Amino acid sequence: MEFNKEQIVHLADLAKLKLSEEEIESYKHQLQDILTYVEKINNLDLKDVKESLSGLATGALVPRPDQVEESKSEIISQAGQKDGQYVSAPNVFNK
Amino acid sequence: MSKIDLQKLNIDGIQQAFKNGQFSSEELTKEYLAKIKADDTNSFISINEEALSEAREADQKIKAGQGTILTGIPIAIKDIILVSGQKATGGSKILENYQASYTATAVARLKEAGMVILGKTNCDEFAMGSSNENSYFGPVLNPHDKTRVSGGSSGGSAVAVANQLAPVSLGTDTGGSIRQPASFCGVVGLKPSYGRVSRYGSMAMTSSLDQIGPLTKTVKEAAYLLQQMAGFDKYDATSSTTKVVDYIKELDKDVKKIRIGVPEEYFGEGIDKEIKQAIEDKIKILSQAGFEIKSVKLPYTEYALAAYYLLMPAEVSSNLARYDGILYGLGADKNLSLDDWYKTVRSQGFGAETKRRIILGTYILSAGYYDAYYKQAQKLRTLIKNDFAEVFEQVDALITPVTPTTVFKIGEKSKDPLAMYLSDIFTVGANIAGICALSLPIGKDKNKLPMALQILAKPMDESTLFKLGNYIEKLNLQK
Predict the structure, then answer these.
(1) What value does the mean pLDDT take over residues B218-236?
(2) How far is B258 from chain A (nearest CA, A)?
């Protein structure tokens, strides 16, 4: 798998990152090396193997009952921009 | 009051000193705070301003006869773990001024027992790294040789204990981040089984692999800490309901019945000769002492690192999507469009390694590649779990190296990410399989650098790690 500059720029865009020309170039090479290394797993025939989501034995992860506890003030206490009880965000529609 | 000898202090010793009136928790805490202030290893990011009042409260508790083994014991906490009211930076610029709004369950349980929080320790950004060189706050220096790294990502926590800045500390381990710095600094480090300790309040890096664990000078202290932290937590749906046994009561029971396995794949090429020799010497002593030792195979070992570097970046890219500067963290010019705001905040706030892993993870999870990479890695996880499960039918514990080399110099591996990743080769397997693992110091090499061995046991069997680790530790002292 070969990375080209456009791919890196596209991935950065998906991940909401803005990269410099230098970063794009260096990541291209580094990610290439890493990907070449991890591709060794393609040597294995995993067709009949089931996926494991974690190290825990398969068992139901039962959600806890939905009990509401008031914590809004703590949650918004660290927001950079607030408007009274609300957290304010940059303009969504302005491109 | 005579100066307290911090080097010799362990939890039992501290409790004895409290009992004898030799010093109080307040006096001990003051001593550690002074040492931290004078410290030049860069292990701490912030100090707890309430430490002395927490210590005084602990002293009251002890005086009233309500103290337990952990009451009044100071502890340092990795800055990726939240403590309400204190800064939690995650080693990152993006959270440089973030103040935690709640306390991690693991820490809350320790506070309930009366432990005193000294401060938050330096770590690789969002726990990503094997040297602590990825911290926004600078690298942590290894007290054994200050031109060398501390190891990572829990570098600050490891050095805090190694350099007598705290008797014990907490770190997190996703691919070796407790065990590797512990081995590089000559302290004990425990990665509990996945689900043994609640992850609530630990900034998520790789949700299917992360675990909080203790770093200490002795195995028994790690057991004390795990005893208090372990157990199901309703706020962590991945925490296990498996009962927590009494680790201390079991510590000396039936130790020689532990069947030991030595996996061939962990003793191949590329391991420092001195480390290999030191571990083989220990195994020989155990054999002579009557332990059953056998050679075992873990055939998927060579694929563990590849699986890790697929699963981990994928989950990282997802977990770090929350850092967008709106609810918390670094902000930007509020006149920017939303898209530009996100890009500015995240590009300025994240370091190079973090960005690298996010991009890799985004690629792994993207349409057209998800099946080829992420799904395959999940399948590999099954095979690696099975490898260990099969081996643990034949033996109870495995002994392996922790790292292929002793601690490297600052800057030595930082230019080559892949070389840095390869140093995790012996630690990642335990995370992927969800089993428990202990890093135990076994002396120093000819350059006076710490060496360690790793003990692995099956899920939820930390008791075996403590029993065998405690036994080997006593052997070390006899030399």
Answers:
(1) 96
(2) 23
Say how many CA atoms lie within 13 Å of B423 toward its Cβ.
Answer: 24
Q: If you average pLDDT over residues B392-401, what whole number do you get? A: 98
Residue B146, H or E segment = strand B145-149
Q: In this structure, which amino acid lies at residue B227?
A: Q
Which residue, among B307, B358, B360, B372, has the nearest Cα to B175 in the 3D structure? Answer: B307
The CATH code of the domain that includes B451 is: 3.90.1300.10
- Are B410 and A25 in contact, with CB atoms under 8 Å apart? no
Nearest to A52 by CA among B473, B287, B382: B382
Contact list, A74 vs chain B (CB under 8 Å):
101-102
Top-level class of domain A1-44: mainly alpha
> d(Cα B477, Cα B224) in Å, to the nearest integer?
21
Is the four-CA dihedral B175, B177, B180, B182 of positive or negative sign?
A: negative
Write down the domain spans for chain A: 1-44
CA gap B267, B279 in Å, rounded? 10
Q: ipTM of this model?
A: 0.92
Tokens matching residue B13: 């010793």
Range of the domain at B325: 1-479
Q: Does B365 touch chain A (CB under 8 A)?
A: no
Give B83 to chain A, closest Cα distance, Å.
Answer: 13
Sheet (strand B397-401) strand order: B44-47, B116-121, B74-78, B168-173, B211-216, B188-191, B436-444, B450-457, B397-401, B260-263, B293-296
pLDDT digits (tens, 9 = 90+) for B123-169: 999 999 999 999 999 999 999 999 999 999 999 999 999 999 999 99
Q: Is A60 part of the contact surface with chain B (CB cutoff 8 Å)?
A: no
- List the beta bridge partners of residue B352: none
Q: Which residue has the tokens 């609810």?
A: B327
Which helix (H) or strand (E) segment holds residue B77: the answer is: strand B74-78
Residue among A12, A44, A56 minimizing CB distance to B434: A56
Q: How many domains does chain B have?
A: 1
The neighbouring-strand residues paired with B297 are: none
* Distance separating alpha carbons of residues B423 and B445, to the nearest angstrom: 18
Q: Give the span between the Cα atoms of B17 and B278, in whole angstroms.
A: 35
Query: Of residues B24, B169, B177, B423, which has the active-site annotation?
Result: B177
A22 part of contact set with chain B, CB < 8 Å: no
Q: Is B379 part of the contact surface with chain A (CB cutoff 8 Å)? A: yes
Residue B141, strand partner residues: B149
Mention every residue, 6+ apart, whose C-beta is less than 8 A from residue B442. Answer: B278, B279, B282, B451, B452, B453, B472, B476
Supply B208's token pair. Answer: 């299917």
Alpha helices for A1-95 (secondary structure H)? 5-14, 21-38, 72-76
Q: Do residues B127 and B79 lie in contact, with contact meaning Cβ atoms separated by under 8 Å?
A: no
Nearest Cα to B114, choosing from B5, B224, B3? B224
B451 backbone dihedrals φ, ψ, rounded to 5°: -120, 155
